[in-house]
Amino acid sequence: MASEKPGSIEQEQDQSLSDLEQTLMSMENLDRASPEIWPEKYPGMTDFVNSFTPPSAVKLPYSKELNQDDQNYLHQLAALPTAGLISKVKELHDIAYQLGVEESKEVTRGKYLNVFKPRQKQK
Predict the structure, then answer these.
(1) What's the predicted TM-score (pTM) here?
(2) CB 107 within 8 A of CB 101
């Protein structure tokens, strides 16, 4: 076997890759809390916003209680056979795709109409 001989090409390549990995190794700790690495766009803005919205007051959209219609729909989905559930997922996927296509058209239209351009201040 050529790879078992000392000084073979494969061993030299493995050694050079190992050396390369060692030179590329970074021991730097990128702490997200560091204001020097990731400064705030407006200093103090994060503290200001957090002072108005305490973490316990934020309601997540999926933490709402289900009403009777939602529970009925959930039971209908649970009663579907596997093929029916797959077809429902495909239907939702098609709706989401169509919505994305329509949104893309509207964004393109907005670009042509210069809707996204910042307004110039009048003097």
Answers:
(1) 0.43
(2) no
